[in-house]
Amino acid sequence: SDLGITELHKAFGEKYGINPDYAAEAHYILGERAFEVFSRSDLKTSQKGKAGKKDIENRLKEKRESLKGPLDPFAKCIALQTDKWTPRATFMCGEIFWNLMETVKEQTILEKDPSQIAYTKVKINEVLPQYFDKAMEYYFINVDKFSNKMGVKNEWIDRSAEKFAQAWYMIGFSHVENGE
Question: Could you tell me the pTM of the whole model?
């Protein structure tokens, strides 16, 4: 049979008194490994002109498609609802979208004309809020649900609160950069 970690725990964990922390930790470690690979991909290119733009488009498409790599194991970790691993995995889900936002923001700008460079930066800043919003959703879960409602206090909640505040600042800054 081809049972995954979560399925094995559901099938045998309760019956044999196996702590779900073990399954959650395994999913978390798999998510961390996938995140390391995901976070290494960027939108930088050495190509010029239309070929460079196409390369950046392809890299962005690949990066978006690879979101599932780290998201799936972190989601499985969260589903096990353990005190130790759920806030960590929730924070890391936010980090996935934060990394995607930073990758988009730091992409290669191929234009040479200053007005075209400025226009490209505005266009980049216009797409960033969707990634901020998604990252903030995860950070807010840690802050609101675990901290405010359940009284959990730990490093992952604190880091989520810091990133949530930083995201608000950066959203405001991107509006300033765009002249809004």
Answer: 0.84
